[in-house]
Design brief:
By secondary structure, this protein is mainly beta. It is built from 2 helices and 9 strands, in the order ααβββββββββ. The structure holds zinc ion.
Length: about 140
């Protein structure tokens, strides 16, 4: 079990950039192709921009062509949590950081093997660390 990170809205506003705040705390979506992490091909770990929790490994990153950083699996199952999002008349599965609750993106069932999942993440909600986490 990882300890939860809880902050007030004002505290999040003070620690995040306006773009990070909009995505992580207000369920925003960055513009397609906006994130430099789309082109990040180095080995490393993608961490939550809100709390620093390790969320995804470069090992599961792939080029989905969607314009958002995409992964076929989280680093650890317990690193992320999902909820059903029914906004905009669509039924989607929202992905958020298990530690701080920050909104990361959505997961779709059209990903590659072995999971068949596509974790479609907002790059602004992730921080790339070129050190690989040991799982
Ligand atoms: Zn987090």
């Amino acid at each position: 079990m990882t300890a939860k990170v809880e902050k007030t809205d004002a505290e999040w506003r003070a620690t995040l950039s306006p773009e990070q705040y909009q995505v992580l705390r207000k369920h925003g979506t960055e513009h397609r192709g906006a994130s430099p992490l789309n082109k990040e091909k180095r080995e490393g770990t993608f961490k939550c921009a809100g709390c620093g929790e390790s969320l995804f490994s470069s090992d599961t990153k792939y080029d989905s062509g969607s314009g958002w950083p995409s992964f076929y699996a989280p680093l650890k199952d317990e690193a992320v949590e999902t909820t059903t999002d029914q906004t905009y008349g669509m039924r989607r599965t929202e992905v958020h950081c298990a530690k701080c609750g920050g909104h990361l993106g959505h997961v779709f069932e059209d990903g590659p093997k072995p999971t068949g999942l596509r974790y479609c993440m907002n790059g602004v909600s992730l921080a790339f660390d070129p050190e690989k986490d040991k799982v």
